[in-house]
Every structure is written in structure tokens, then in C-alpha cells.
Amino acid sequence: MCGDPEPLQIIEEQEEICSSQEGEHDHQLLSHNGKSFKRDTSGKDFVRSLVLNRHPRSHTHEKPHSCETCGKSFRRSSELNVHIRTHTGEKPYPCNTCGKGFISVSILKRHIRTHTGEKPFLCNTCGKKFSYKSTFINHMNKHTGEKPHSCKTCGKSLSSRAGLLSHMKTHTSEKPYICYTCEKSFRETSALRMHMRIHTEEKPFTCETCGKGFKRNGDLTIHKRLHTGEKPYSCNTCGKRFYHPSNLRSHERIHTGVQQLNETKFDNSYVSN
């Protein structure tokens, strides 16, 4: 479902967050008693017996800690404690910069990157950097072609959890995001934001060459071709090229015998002032 808002990232990285918290706790205990323990058959070294006893659950998927409110189960008590805060609303870890509160230290640390601009996850393929592990993994899936998230309804596979969640809404009539101006509803927040520009007349995407503004980045991309002369869409029959796919479809009607539409029909919104 790669693209994605902090609540989703919390879901995707919950296990990592809790593991990190327990790792810090384990280290503190070790510094007090200095006791070490042997590793089990999986080959992992453990610093204390509690971790040794807990590790097999990662193989058995045992989840002995249940939430009394919603029934959701967790492998570790620390995971449950963090989850309970989603019901109570408790956010004991505030950001010193903006004051926003968070349910765990790890989530707070990730949030702080929005202020510092830190991007610790580097793609060795293209050099792009990411602030969050979840978005980094989604990005890497695009290079490898891996699509680990499958829709249980139709079987379609997607590269990210965010993409899966978005896709699953196509199987339902759910449109939870409502425009308060005209009451039209949408499946995605991005679609609602784009719709709102109809009411606000906001045009945040501006051409650096002529200054014309557009509501969508895709419209700006098409408009720029007027300046560059790029025409990436070609007719398979005669080779004539166009800068917009709609103009190509109109042109192809000449060859199919269907009455041609005015090719300038789709051009007016993209021409410069």
C-alpha cells in the first residue's frame, strides 16, 4: 500500500519499534548483572535468559499477550503496552521542537527526522535516501519487482502496504473522505485534496518558463512539453507524434474511420498565457 502518513508507518514498523525498546531494556539489565547466556539452535546470541525464552516465539508465531479492549494479540508485553496507548490516547513522549506527543520513543525518534531532515536509509541502487524504513523497503521493491502484499479478494499483488490498502477500497463502496463544501466523497485523501482545489482555485504547480499554474503536477508535466517540443506519444499507423495521449487517440480515429475530434480540444488547458 510504498508514497505514505505516519499512522500507516506505525503499523508497518510496530514490531521493529517494540524490539528496539526491549533491546534497550536488555542492555540496561546486562550492565547491572553482566551475565551472559548461550545461544540456541537458531544461531542467535542472547544476553539473558528472558530473551532466550522469548526468541522462539518469532518462529512459532505465538502471541500470548492480548489486549482486553479489542482482543488483538502480541508476542511481547512491550508491544501490548504500546498498543494499549492507541486506545487510551496516552502519548507520553513529546517532541521538544513542536510539542507533538507519541506513544513510543522509537516513533518519536522517527518523527524528529521531519525536523532534522535526516534520511538514514540509503538505496545502493539509485542513491536515493529515505527517512523511514517502511518507505525505503517499498522503494527497494520497485527495483527488485517484489510485490509481497496480496489482495485476498482478487489476488492482485502490490509492492507496498499502503498500495494494498488503497487497492482494497476498490472492492468496497467505502468513501470515507468527504468534501465539506459540496459533500462529495472520495476513497483517498489525495483525491480529496485534489478535488478541494476546485473550490479554492489553488494551483500549486507552476511552470518555471512561463509562470502558468496548474492544479495537478501531471498537468504541469504535459504543459512543459509545449516549451520543450517533446511528443512522446506516436501513432503506430503513420508515425505522427503527440504530446498528450488524448490527442493521439483523437488522431487514430482518422485511421479507424471514426469521425475525428478536434485535436485542439485537449490542448487549451495546457497552453501558456
TrEMBL record:
The keyword Zinc-finger applies. Residues 37-64, 65-92, 93-120, 121-148, 149-176, 177-204, 205-232, 233-260 form the C2H2-type domain. GO terms for molecular function: DNA-binding transcription factor activity, RNA polymerase II-specific; RNA polymerase II cis-regulatory region sequence-specific DNA binding; zinc ion binding. This is C2H2-type domain-containing protein. GO terms for cellular component: nucleus. Pfam families: zf-C2H2, zf-H2C2_2. It is found in: Nucleus. One of its GO terms (biological process) is negative regulation of transcription by RNA polymerase II. Belongs to the krueppel C2H2-type zinc-finger protein family. Gene3D superfamilies: Classic Zinc Finger. Keywords: DNA-binding, Metal-binding, Nucleus, Repeat, Transcription, Transcription regulation, Zinc, Zinc-finger. It comes from Lates calcarifer (Barramundi). PANTHER family: PROTEIN ESCARGOT, ZINC FINGER PROTEIN.
